[in-house]
Write a structure and sequence with these properties.
- By secondary structure, the chain is of the alpha/beta class.
- The chain folds into two domains: 2-131, Sulfate adenylyltransferase (Roll); 142-351, 3-Layer(aba) Sandwich (Rossmann fold), CATH 3.40.50.620.
- The protein contains 13 helices and 15 strands.
- The chain has helices at 8-18, 31-40, 59-64, 94-102, 110-116, 148-158, 174-184, 206-220, 240-252, 275-278, 285-288, 323-331, 343-351, and strands at residues 2-5, 27-28, 56-57, 70-75, 80-91, 121-131, 163-168, 189-196, 226-228, 231-232, 257-260, 291-294, 298-301, 306-309, 318-320.
- The two termini are 37 Å apart.
Length: 358
């Protein structure tokens, strides 16, 4: 069986496919499903899916594998591998993919830039075997990973029937905490699941995200109301399409509700603030298999000294959150305002040698 070396992101996708994280997908998309997802945000059988899960290869690799029916993909750094059967090699239009998925061809968008740097061919195939290697080694952040089977078991043991999932790629500021506690008020349990893996420069370090949430949950949430679980998954920054994918993934983990805030999975000014919420109007909760909690923007009310939703605050009293300003405070190891982030979390970030990705 021929073997090819793939990136950490590719092997993470393979392991997620094998573990049911991307259900109903069973492997890297074949051409029929790839084009159906681009056009309709559905697989060819009609199932909802919004982001192509694909494995790109260059011309030389495509030629090498042209007569193969089964191959093994490996990543030596993680020590992980996966077997794909019934493989299909096909070419694709990068401009078409970028425009359909990200809504732009501007390479200032990190997702578009990544597509343009892909190989010229895609390799579809069903995952029939996968070995995690070092992915679940006993150190953060992988030690916080739970499979969909494991989370469903934990939710049942906890007696949680309504479970709300919260997606993040950042350390928690007090606006996030406000949203999480509002969501928890509508459920039996809260599943906070930060994305760990490839992100754009100046995003937060994975270890810092996990450490910060660990402290937040232990000190500022009621005991046995929150589960922290890492999700090995690269950010695509696809805005509304990615919000839809994130919801489907959390359905697979057994969650009944999913929080979608303003500009979910966005980057820069590429998406309207409400676009990620509005995309869910195209689908019924029954078809999605998960209920969407559309929560508004959180601000700090300078008059009351409390956090609240923007619509509940007079304009002259609104103090908005800025992720960029927070990162600047962290980079310069300067204490942010008390309304922005808890001191306990700032201490973690201040003492870390590299809290922000390069």
């Amino acid at each position: 069986m021929k073997r090819i070396e793939v990136s950490k992101e590719n092997i993470q996708d393979a392991l997620n496919l094998a573990g049911g994280v991307y259900a109903p997908l069973e492997g890297f998309l074949y051409s029929q499903d790839f084009y159906s997802v681009l056009e309709k945000m559905r697989l060819s059988d009609g199932s909802i899916w919004s982001i192509p899960i694909i494995l790109d290869i260059n011309k030389e690799t495509a030629y090498l594998l042209r007569n193969e029916k089964e191959i093994k993909i490996v990543n030596r750094e993680l020590g992980a591998e996966s077997v794909l059967e019934n493989i299909q090699i096909y070419n694709f239009d990068k401009n078409e993919m970028a425009q359909k998925v990200f809504g732009t061809l501007n390479e200032a968008h990190p997702g578009v830039a990544e597509v343009m740097n892909m190989g010229d061919y895609l390799l579809g195939g069903k995952i029939v075997e996968a070995r995690e290697g070092n992915r679940n080694k006993n150190i953060p952040p992988f030690s916080y990973y739970y499979s969909p089977k494991e989370t469903r078991k934990i939710f049942k043991q906890n007696g949680w029937k309504k479970i709300v999932a919260f997606q993040t790629r950042n350390v928690p500021h007090l606006g996030h905490e406000f949203l999480q506690k509002q969501a928890l008020g509508k459920a039996d349990g809260l599943f906070i699941q930060p994305v760990i893996g490839k992100k754009k420069p100046y995003d937060f370090n994975d270890e810092c995200i996990i450490s910060a949430y660990k402290v937040l949950i232990e000190k500022f949430f009621k005991t046995n109301t929150v589960l922290l679980g890492a999700l090995p998954l690269k950010m695509r920054y696809a805005g509304p399409r990615e919000a839809l994918m994130h919801a489907l993934v959390r359905r697979n983990f057994g969650c009944t509700h999913f929080v979608v805030g303003r500009d979910h999975a966005g980057v820069g000014n590429f998406y309207a603030p409400d676009a990620a919420q509005e995309i869910f109007d195209r689908f019924s909760p029954r078809e999605l298999g998960i209920e969407i909690l559309k929560l508004g923007e959180v601000v700090f009310n300078s008059q009351t000294g409390r956090h609240c939703f923007e619509e509940d605050c007079e304009e002259e009293n609104k103090v908005k959150f800025s992720g960029t300003k927070l990162r600047d405070f962290i980079k310069n190891k300067k204490q942010p305002p008390e309304y922005l982030i808890r001191r306990e979390i700032f201490e973690i970030l201040k003492n870390h040698p590299n809290p922000l990705s390069d």
